[in-house]
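Input.
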Amino acid sequence: MVRKMIVTISGMPGSGKSTLARNLAKALGFKHHSAGEFMRQIARERGKSILELSRIAEKDESIDREIDARTKRLAGKEDNFVMDSRLAWHFIPESVKIFVVVDLRAAAARIFKDMRADEKENTSVEKTRENLERRMKSEVERYKKLYKVDYLDRKNYDFVIDTSDISPKEALGKALGLVKQYLKKGVKT
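Output.
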């Protein structure tokens, strides 16, 4: 097992970043953590959907700050984990940073197919795509306001993986290759 390594995986909604993070953590023998799960926990606690909570977070920065505080605490007490999070790369700058992109139509189809109970606004693939665009715009605006960062800017990451036309297994193969390549360089281990 690699010692003292953290991999952060950010990406567009529906890109498969959570699946990739879980699979990569398992392959590396690391723990997996998810800011999305932090967000879902807060949404459940408040009886809201993810989209509703995102709208609330536009005016109530305490939601983002709570998720970010959990991320920082985690990095301060653990090593050897993979975290999927829009902003973990920002709060854990020493991490290996991977960004996952996807065509919005493919993302909408994936999310609609999943039919998550906390995403009840997604009544069709087209409506899901519209909600994705709205959610991404909301997140970009919030994060720029709070931290002056744009999570969609690929310059923030060490690697970018496009999952539009590949399987989760292929995405994992690419990620493992990138992490191994990173380790060979002897950087940030």
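The radius of gyration is 16 Å.
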